[in-house]
Amino acid sequence: MLKFLIRRLGQSLIALAVISVLVFGLSQLTGNPTDALLPMDASPEQRENIIRHWGLDRPLHEQYFTFVGNALQGDFGESMKWRGQPALEVVMRHLPATLQLGGFAVLITIIAAIPLGVIAARYRGTWIDSFANMFALLGQALPPFWLGLIFIWIFAVWLGWLPTSGYGGLYHMILPAFAMAWFQIAALTRLTRSAMIDVLDTEYIKLARAKGLSGNAIVWKHALRNASIVPLTFFGVLAGSILKGSIVIETVFAWPGTGWLAIEAIRGRDFPVIQTTVLLFAIIYLVLNFLIDVLYAIIDPRIRTG
Amino acid sequence: MLAKLKGVPFFALAVLLIVVVVPGLFAELVAPHDPFAANLRNRMQPPLFLGGTTEFILGTDRLGRDMLSRIIYGARYVIVISLIGIILGAVLGSALGLVAGYYKGIVDALIMRTVDISFALPSVLLALAFATIWQPSFQLVIGVVVLVIWAFFARQVRAEALVISSKDYVARAQLVGSSDLRILTRHILPGVVNTIVVLATLQIGVVIMLEATLSFLGIGIPRPAPAWGLLVADGRQLIVTAWWISFFPGLAILLTVLSVNLLGDWLRDRLDPKRLRS
Fold it and tell me: What is the pLDDT, as a whole number, of residue B97?
């Protein structure tokens, strides 16, 4: 197990190193980094300061290590749009809103998709199964940004039940969270269904039936527990999609999270903030996938040696 | 003959033909208006079934441009982006997958780690980073598409190339002195062609969605091109007064992706019933 942990951690760290090189490389490609880091009307001293601070007069590999060193201390430079504020601070200030919305979306996904998948598997071949299947197909083809607009039009404009956009409590979160969760529900339903079908065909389920256990007890207690390993891997993908989805959905609903921030930063050509967001998202993604793989290895010992 | 046609998703094919292929290929012939011709006197006309005129069946936008014509011209971007993006991504990914699966060892490890990293990079974020450096452009969208999809091809093709390269006929080919290139293209590639075709079909939906998302966010196809994602974005601020501006382009995306996915599922079951189930 320890060997597995070390190897898996090593992989994540290498991936992170490569991503940091990419992010660093991007800052090189923007042309003269001082232009990107400084306002248009910067004084020569400011320019001088930046060059010394980032070590821009040194060879490239040294510059990279300076970049990593600064990044490790949480120093990504100053935001250009939000003058005088460190980029990391700006990004971190918007992170809670993203986690709030993302967490709510994950909750909706699990609550909706797992029962739907289990029921579809249990009543395989019936109209319930076809309905779940159609729902899944439709869910994967709906553009989330468009779905968000349709939600706004139906529930906020037409029916007037919920606010159109903006930051706030549960009321404000319902529409964006559902728009974000829709695609995930579709994917997780399909996955749960096929995992359940595989498990329901195994010997010990047949044995449980032979012993006279009721259908519900078998499906929800015995089969679901074993089938749950498959959807577990999905949560790594889910986390990534939620991060990605946050950019789109937060923009549509003017929800002031990191995704919304990223688009605002692009419009303002606020490079330090974008750099920080890209790195932060990559780290969240890598950490989550690492944890999921570890969890997976705990549940299924065969993985550890594989 | 009829038995052969059973299960073919005709509905999906028909939808694709009507929504994408015919409009995309013959936009000049089918579109009733110039998609760029603005006429403020006709601005925000409702679609026909909401009291509009037959002149603008799907209504007009904020500048009085005909929505139907704009959607029709937008189909071109769907075709071109998915065709070029998929072909480049499939060729690059499959080639790397073949090499990784055939040579194994350090080459394999190197390529597969790159695949892992590629999966770890959220695609929209990647596009975001690019868009800060270069102005959004057609080429940039293609670049992002290729960077996102190559890894799917590499991973799947590598897994199958690994199996095939341990077969006897490959060993025999090596014994008689066939070059690596010959073995890869003549002996291993034919065995993975089905997989590549199925995967390519299944990825079309992903590519269309990605392009639409990027365009919607303003980091994809640049204006004034009538790409569908841009058309949806155009109507965003007008959702209260003129919902049709966003609605119909989005519906076109939905129908296209749905049909392509149905087609992909069918092709997968046809060509490869065992593998690629996910």
Answer: 93
Q: Using alpha carbons, select from A101, A100, A85 the residue that is nearest to residue A265.
A: A85
Contacts of B223 (CB under 8 A, 6+ apart): B230
According to DSSP, the residues that pair with A78 across neighbouring strands are A86
Name the strand (E) or helix (H) holding B64: none
- Could you give the C-alpha distances from A234 to A12, A104, A293, in angstroms and in order? 18, 17, 11
Q: Do A15 and B217 touch (CB under 8 A)?
A: no
Q: Give backbone dihedrals phi and psi of B265, rounded to 5 degrees, phi first.
A: -60, -45
Q: Per residue in B180-226, pLDDT tens?
A: 888 888 888 888 888 898 889 889 998 999 999 999 988 889 888 89
Query: pTM of the entire structure?
Result: 0.84
pLDDT-derived band of residue A304, with 50, 70 and 90 as boundaries?
A: low
Chain B residues within 8 A of A194 when measuring between CB atoms: 277
A51 alpha-carbon distance from chain centroid: 35
Residue B254 C-alpha, separation from nearest chain A C-alpha, in angstroms: 5
Q: What percent of chain A has pLDDT over 90?
A: 6
- Tell me the two tokens of residue A76: 């990504």
d(CA A157, CA B89): 42
Q: Are A167 and A95 in contact (CB under 8 A)?
A: no
Q: Is the pLDDT reported for residue B107 higher than 70?
A: yes
Cβ-Cβ pairs closer than 8 A, A with B, add up to 125
CA distance A251 to A255: 7
Q: Do A153 and B243 touch (CB under 8 A)?
A: yes
Pair A124, A195: CB distance under 8 Å: no
Q: Give chain B's end-to-end CA distance (angstroms, integer).
A: 31
Q: What is the pLDDT of residues A6-27, one digit of tens each?
A: 888 887 888 788 878 877 877 6
The closest CB to that of B240, out of A145, A157, A271, belongs to A157
Tokens 């989805």, residue located: A245
Q: State the Rg of chain B over Cα.
A: 22
Interatomic CA distance for residues B203 and B191, integer angstroms: 20
User: Using alpha carbons only, what angle is made at residue A285 by residues A279 and A288, rounded to the nearest 5 degrees?
Assistant: 135
Angle at A280 between CA A250 and CA A262, to 5 degrees: 35
Q: State CA B239 to chain mean position distance.
A: 27
